[in-house]
Design brief:
Elements lengths: L9 H5 L11 H7 L12 H14 L3 H14 L1 H10 L1 H8 L3 H7 L11 E3 L7 H5 L9 E5 L16 H14 L6 E6 L6 H4 L14 H18 L4 E4 L4 H11 L5 E3 H21 L8 E4 L3 H16 L4 H6 L1 E5 L2 E2 L23 H8 L3 E4 L9 H10 L4 E4 L11 H7 L5 E4 L6 E3 L2 E3 L2 E2 L6 H10 L7 H13 L3 H5 L10 H19 L10 H7 L14
Parallel strand pairs: 1-3, 2-3, 2-4, 4-5, 6-7, 6-9, 9-10, 10-11, 11-14
Antiparallel strand pairs: 7-8, 12-13
Helix pairs in contact: 3-5, 4-5, 4-7, 5-6, 5-9, 9-19, 13-14, 13-20, 16-17, 19-22, 20-22, 22-23
């Protein structure tokens, strides 16, 4: 940090990446022109962090905590990340799910300071030029949403910008990707949400959604502009409506360095949970029958990756597909139905049409996965049926935020007489039942996407393959220890998330080298190479640690 690079010392206090506030040392204050601009006492990051937590914990509502943390991120970036890393269990539900859902709903009303890049239909022909307005020269990870399917909340238009902002905060906190290398992008093509269109404070394009060829041309221009400006940047598609999610992934997966987190990230974290569940149930993975409630991008993505996992375990593709069944709002997904979308067709079996409960009793799945966005759909009858046909029914209620979960942890455990193996998308507290403590696992994509991103950019991969998600799932499952399984937890604690991400990153990079997708010559010590790149938010004069 040099005084010569700033007009005056006060500039350092105004920029979140350079501001240390009261932690500037006396020597730094003299050297950088900060004398007279700060109180006399020199703070440490530890002391500043204590003040942050004290302030956060005093607030009455999570949305207030979210606003306060976003303000800290805009004011003192390093302190924000140090606090988030060191208290990830407490703060991740504030920074991301479930609180980010409410933050997105209220995004325009709690807007304080711009963060991220916006693309609208009026930018056609100028997107590449507009990207030059972004102040950072080396962008490595980009998260893009069009806001049409935010979590389980639906079309939130430009308010969906809260999702890329939150995801990228987790890339930094959980995998050490520098915030200077992260870019949130809002593809604001309007909204069909009438409430937003009639909200005078809404900040997005106040028109009906752009669709069809004009939409595709805008996305094409955006992807081409990114590839020209930052050819090594990883693009993550996030919270697109299912038809667009699949269409865009299929359109760009072989020509762009990209993936869809709702399809592929969700798949990997769910598959890891299923792998881990077999260590409790004692069942052989390739013998499992899995049923999905919901047939959108998340559920079908899980199924697609599970087919690959079954085949890796020795099954033929036909046998693998036969072990996976879907139920949607109209009942069991079967070949005789005429209302199915293209991504559902491989799983439309030659069975008779029937409702959800009848399908459970007829098919007798070992694993039930909910990805519906419809709360309460795992009723008492559903859980009790699963418990009748399984000694250890595996119940995944993955819909986010918490208010949209198919059932609660307490319901899953109590209705199964404590025998359920439960995981959810949003956090639930532990449950005491008959003298035993059950610790529900959270099947959060944060276990997967940061490590995927770190591994891919560390080896300069040019493609993200399905095999990379398979190896990420296998690595994640292997990091669950016996003590965690004893409590019914299928995932490692969030306190270990940076180690989890580093281990996944190494495995993903190894896979990239194996497949020929890594452009960087292979380092002698890949693990050390990757860990050396992980951003440490500590101040220069503080002890550095991950």
């Amino acid at each position: 940090m040099s005084k010569q690079t700033h007009e005056n010392g006060f500039d350092l206090l105004l920029h979140p990446s350079t501001n240390k506030s009261t932690a500037f040392t006396l020597a730094e204050r003299r050297e950088l022109g900060l004398q007279g601009l700060l109180p006399a006492r020199v703070s440490t990051m530890v002391g500043q962090k204590r003040l942050v937590l004290e302030s956060i914990r005093r607030k009455a509502f999570d949305i207030e905590r979210y606003i306060a943390l976003r303000a800290l991120q805009d004011r003192n970036e390093r302190l924000f990340y140090r606090t988030l890393i060191d208290h990830i269990d407490e703060l991740m539900p504030i920074v991301y799910t479930p609180t980010v859902g409410q933050a997105c709903k209220e995004f325009a009303h709690i807007f304080r300071q711009p963060r991220g890049f916006y693309v609208t239909p009026s930018d056609r022909g100028n997107i590449r030029q507009n990207l030059d307005n972004w102040p950072e020269s080396e962008v490595r990870v980009i998260v893009i949403t069009d806001g049409e399917r935010i979590l389980g909340l639906g079309d939130l238009g430009a308010n969906g910008m809260g999702i890329p902002i939150g995801k990228l905060a987790l890339y930094t906190a959980c995998a050490g990707i520098s915030p200077a290398h992260c870019l949130p992008v809002m593809l604001d093509v309007g909204t069909d949400n009438e409430e937003l269109l009639h909200d005078e404070l809404y900040l997005g394009v106040d028109e009906k959604r752009l669709r069809g060829e004009a939409y595709d041309e805008l996305v094409d221009e955006l992807i081409s502009a990114i590839q020209d400006k930052w050819p090594e940047a990883l693009i993550q598609f996030e919270d697109f409506l299912t038809p667009n999610a699949y269409r865009l992934l299929n359109r760009y997966r072989d020509s762009a360095f990209c993936f869809n987190d709702d399809i592929q990230g969700t798949a990997a974290v769910a598959l890891a949970g299923v792998y881990a569940s077999t260590r409790i149930s004692g069942l052989n993975f390739k013998d499992l029958r899995i049923m999905f409630l919901g047939a959108g991008s998340a559920a079908t993505g899980i199924a697609d990756l599970t087919v690959e996992a079954f085949m890796a375990a020795g099954l033929s593709r036909e046998a693998a597909v036969s072990r996976l069944t879907f139920v949607d709002i109209n009942g069991l997904v079967v070949a005789s139905r005429s209302d199915l979308q293209e991504h559902n067709l491989p799983y439309a079996h030659a069975k008779e049409e029937m409702g959800f409960l009848d399908a459970l009793q007829a098919i007798r799945p070992h694993v039930l996965i909910g990805a519906t966005g419809a709360p309460g759909t795992f009723t008492r009858d559903v859980i009790e049926t699963m418990a009748r046909i399984n000694d250890h029914p595996v119940i995944f209620a993955l819909s986010n935020p918490t208010s949209r979960a198919e059932c609660t942890a307490e319901q899953a455990y109590s209705w199964s007489a404590g025998r359920a193996i439960f995981a959810s998308g949003s956090p639930f507290e532990s449950v005491e039942l008959d003298g035993r403590r059950h610790m529900p696992g959270q099947g959060n994509n944060v276990y997967i996407f940061p490590g995927i991103g770190l591994g891919a950019i560390a080896c300069k991969a040019n493609r993200i393959s399905e095999a990379m998600f398979l190896t990420a799932a296998d690595t994640l499952a292997s990091l669950v220890d016996d003590a965690q399984l004893e409590n019914g937890t299928l995932y490692p604690p969030f306190s270990e998330i940076r180690e989890v991400s580093a281990r996944i990153a190494v495995a993903v990079a190894e896979q990239a080298y194996k497949e020929g997708h890594a452009l960087l010559p292979r380092p002698d010590n890949l693990d050390a190479h990757i860990r050396a790149q992980m951003y440490d938010p500590s101040y220069e004069n503080e002890e550095k640690s991950l």
